[in-house]
Amino acid sequence: MLNKLQINNFRNYNTLKLSLQSDKRIVVLYGVNGIGKTNILESISLLYTSNGLRKARYDDMINNKGQKHYWNITAETEHGDFSSGYVRNENAGKRIYKINGKNVRNLDEFRKDNRVLWMTCETDRLFMQAPSERRDFIDMFCDISYPRHSCALKDYEKLTKERLKILKRFCENVANEAISKWLDIVEEKIADLGTQIAKTRSKIATDLEKLQIRNGDFPLFRSKISGRLEEEILEKSNCHELYTLKLKTQRQKDAFSGSTTFGANRSDWVVFHEAKQINAAQCSAGEQKMLILAIFFDFILQHIKSDNRNLIILLDDIITHLDTTHRNLLFRYINSFVQDSQNVSVWLSGADKELFHELKGDAIFFDISRINAGAEERS
Fold first, then answer.
1. Could you give the C-alpha distances from 345 to 1, 3, 254, 276, 300, in angstroms and in order?
2. Given a cut of 80, is residue 372 above it in pLDDT?
3. Measuring CA to CA, which residue among 360, 366, 356 is closest to residue 36?
4. Which residue, 136, 154, 109, is CA-closest to 309?
5. CA distance 187 to 208
6. pLDDT tens digits, residue range 195-204?
7. Model confidence at 375, in pLDDT bands (50, 70, 90)?
8. 64-73, 189-198, 292-301, 370-379: lowest mean pLDDT where?
9. Residue 379 pLDDT more than 50?
10. Sign of the CA dihedral 353, 356, 359, 365?
11. In angstroms, rounded to a whole number, what is the distance separating the alpha carbons of residues 29 and 31?
12. Which residue, among 167, 187, 189, has the nearest Cα to 176 in the 3D structure?
């Protein structure tokens, strides 16, 4: 677990150091809005994934008050010290990863022993947002269960961009034999990765529904991945062949639109409220929040005992619109996660310390307002 966290030149922080008590695996960050609570949670997410929970540009993460051109996050764990950082050069920037002070290529070593999941206040609107936001959310689950999923997504995106560049550059000559063969090679790889990505997402969506909590605390739901890829060819024995054929026949259309109009990048994750038999997008804001919490906790419960890696759960300002009953329900589940597994820690943020009263005695509290003012780091 995280024993210490140090942030340098990141967002609104010049330097921040947090030391955690070994017997407290629930951490509450509180303070007025805009003080930097989310920035701390984002820094932790950057130890696990390349672009963090905000999916922001690396240059935008640099503290703009100083003259330095870098940021760095270091976490001390029982497995060693892990560092994730970025240095901006004249022409470009470079991500830097370190383990015990030595440079490594990526954060695979951290991911080997640790998982990070998060929910933010924006997650409340997930069912009202674009399909890409829902894909990102279920891809987070996929990445925990299938560590190569994130690599497949990056390679898929890279190849689709390459294909579109070819189509744009040679839009008048896509029938040319040499160009057509070039596209054939790229599209074969896209079909391989797209099929893999789609099947992983469908497996996770099915498992979430099949193994969901049925104790009455949360609404029941149905879950599936929907799209032309899934509905037309994914379950067919010659899926790969059909996928590549679809890409080939849509070259002119994709060249004109400047987008890949068929594939895993067009899929959507669809959730239905079981009792009401309606799409989650048609539910009230409160019902949508409870559905998201149900799905999030379902996934945690499914993996909490089957995966020996540390699990760090980041919950950024998600209690704001919960009434007392549901807030206490949330805290009860958080406590159960921590008690059921020594490998789970939970970080929460919020403006009002009193809203976390039920966690008193179980959590360590940090007043971020006082920390930023130079007072003691723990309150």
1. 7, 11, 45, 34, 12
2. no
3. 366
4. 109
5. 31
6. 999 999 999 9
7. very low
8. 370-379
9. no
10. negative
11. 7
12. 167
Task: Quote the mean pLDDT of the chain.
Answer: 92
Whether residue 66 has pLDDT greater than 70: no
Nearest to 340 by CA among 299, 303, 366: 303
- Give which of 188, 181, 177, 165 is closest to 243, Cα–Cα: 188
Structure tokens at 27: 């951490």
Dihedral sign (CA 233, 234, 235, 240): positive
- In angstroms, the CA 77 to CA 97 distance is 15
- Which H/E stretch holds residue 346? strand 344-350
**Block residue for tokens 């007072």:** 375
What contacts 262, CB < 8 A, 6 or more positions away?
228, 229, 246, 247, 250
Tell me which residue has tokens 């963090």. Answer: 52
Structure tokens at 9: 């030149």
Sheet holding 268-273, edge to edge: 221-226, 268-273, 278-279
Q: Tell me which fold the domain 128-283 belongs to.
A: Glutathione S-transferase Yfyf (Class Pi); Chain A, domain 2 (1.20.1050)
Reading across the β-sheet that carries 310-316, which strands appear in turn?
114-119, 310-316, 344-350, 26-30, 363-367
pLDDT tens for residues 33-43?
999 999 999 99
Q: Are residues 73 and 81 in contact, defined by beta-carbon separation less than 8 angstroms? A: no
- Asked if pLDDT for residue 316 goes beyond 90, the answer is yes
The helix/strand/coil state of 124 is helix
Task: Classify residue 35 as exposed, middle or buried by CB count within 10 Å of its CB (0-12, 13-18, 19+).
Answer: buried
Q: What is the dihedral of CA 150, 143, 201, 157, to 10 degrees?
A: -10
Where are the chain's structural domains? 128-283
CB-CB neighbours of 176 under 10 Å: 12
Alpha helix (H) ranges present in the chain?
A: 37-45, 108-113, 131-145, 149-169, 177-210, 228, 239-249, 251-257, 285-303, 324-340, 368-372
Q: Residues 6 or more apart from 344 whose CB is under 8 A from it?
A: 25, 300, 304, 310, 311, 313, 337, 338
